[in-house]
Amino acid sequence: MNFSPVISEISIRKLNEPLNEPFPISSGSQNATSNILVRALLRDGTVGYGEGAPSTTFNGDSQDLTFAALSEQISFLDGKSISNIRAFLEKLDHRMPPERGAARAAIQMALLDAWARSQKIPLRSFFGGEKTSVHSDVTVTLISPQKARLAARKIARLGVETIKIKVGCDLDEDEKRVLAVVQEAPRVRLIIDANQGYSAKKALDFLSRLKKRSIVPALFEQPVKREDLDGLFDVEKNGRVPVCADESAYSLKAVQNLFRRPFPSAVNIKLMKCGIIENLEIAELARKKGKILMIGGNIETALAMTCSAHFACGRGDFSFVDLDTPLWFSRKLWKGPTLGRKGRYDLSKTRTGLGMEPLPRLKKLADF
To answer: Domain coordinates of the chain in residue numbers?
Structure first.
């Protein structure tokens, strides 16, 4: 006899884990996580896990706000059936503030993991089941050109075919950083990410500098401030390089507004911006509009990154994958699929849910 999956208990814990090195970008540097972990227990004993990685960049989100938003839903969730998981998560979405994207992502992830385990299917099947693997880029952060050269050498040895380079501060230094990476790994595909650091004029100047060196990035991510939609349009139209909206694409409503213009031609989906369900709507809208899809994340452990890999594998329509932040953790916290050689996430052996289990050190940290 099949039993309806019913929620028995939701546990929420904070996770403050140091990185093995700083993660500097144009808007600041991060040295540790300020994340949230969620554990969803069903009445039949099935357990699912979720992670929220809030960022002030998107809607002023924070760890405390994420924790509070999740705590408010615990009594509502108790005893609820999640047989119709999509409808239930849509209802839950309407109960939570739209600006609490990391909270939405964390609880949806945990419930989806538990539901997929109870149904004995991998989570990628919920998203469509199109593929069993994807290949991620690896990032060179806002470091000196000398350090960028060494980083590119290590990345090239991994067999990674796409390198993402952070820029957006000093044009001369940014140019040298990109040149150092290209000289060390001349055959890789390049993504340039300014994290809102340039004006449209500076972004076009930067592209001109690169073109003079015969460097043409495959994608230019968020060159200008998130509210500067005219700037996004101008950089792609006049720079003749595909531009990807990231910080400007923080919700379905924001993306609908973006898509009223022919440019930018790409959008970066991050589960933490507005949760999994709303991002499914964004991905479907982008497909209908013929836009290029990229998937990325905040500073997340292997749990949330692997969930994004399930999202990308399931849909099968992502041209750019940026799920490399597990490399910035000195301690492994999860057992399961994660970033491998050539930047590959291989989910072919995952039979149920996310396929992730907390290692003993994480169980102790999170008291799960």
So the answer is: 7-121+361-366, 126-354
Q: Right CATH number for 7-121+361-366 from 3.30.390.10, 3.40.109.40, 3.90.226.10, 1.10.530.10?
A: 3.30.390.10
Overall fold of domain 126-354: TIM Barrel (3.20.20)
Residue-wise pLDDT tens digits, 5-48:
999 999 999 999 999 999 999 989 999 999 999 999 999 999 99
pLDDT at res. 361: 86
Token readout for 143 is 């470091």
What is the pLDDT confidence band of residue 2, given thresholds at 50, 70 and 90?
low
Three-state SS annotation for 219-268? EEECCCCCCCHHHHHHHHHHHCCCEEECCCCCCHHHHHHHCCCCCCCEEE
